[in-house]
């Protein structure tokens, strides 16, 4: 069960990056702005995730703070999907992350 939950959380992290890219590419702006946002938003989220949330994070945070940064990243992804005209997938992304994270925490997995 834990392996399936860990696989799901990894897939959700990839979906988070895809959501940020989708938002950028659907902006009502010229293609250079869309391209910059479509590449820059996922990059910014990936940098934050790598610094604070990854298993080998550069900055070690206490568990509650790490969970807060993870939640902020996923809520940002959900909001970006909503702004791109896809509010239901945005809400599903956040809800699935919250459910999966809860089940992982209850199973004893570190935050």
List keywords for this structure.
111 residues, mainly alpha, 4 helices, 78% helix
- Per DSSP, what share of the residues sits in E-state strands of 2 or more residues? under 5%
Residue-averaged pLDDT: 96
- In whole angstroms, the N-to-C terminal distance is 17 Å
Helix and strand sequence: HHHH
State the helix count: 4
Name the overall outline: globular
Low-confidence stretches: none
Please summarize the sheet with the most strands: none
Strand tally, please? 0
Kindly state the percentage of residues in helix. over 70%
Q: Tell me the Rg in angstroms.
A: 14 Å
> What is the structural class?
mainly alpha
Descriptive overview:
The protein has 111 residues and is mostly helical. The protein is built from four helices and no strands. It is globular and about 45 Å long. The chain starts with a helix and ends in a 5-residue tail after the last helix.
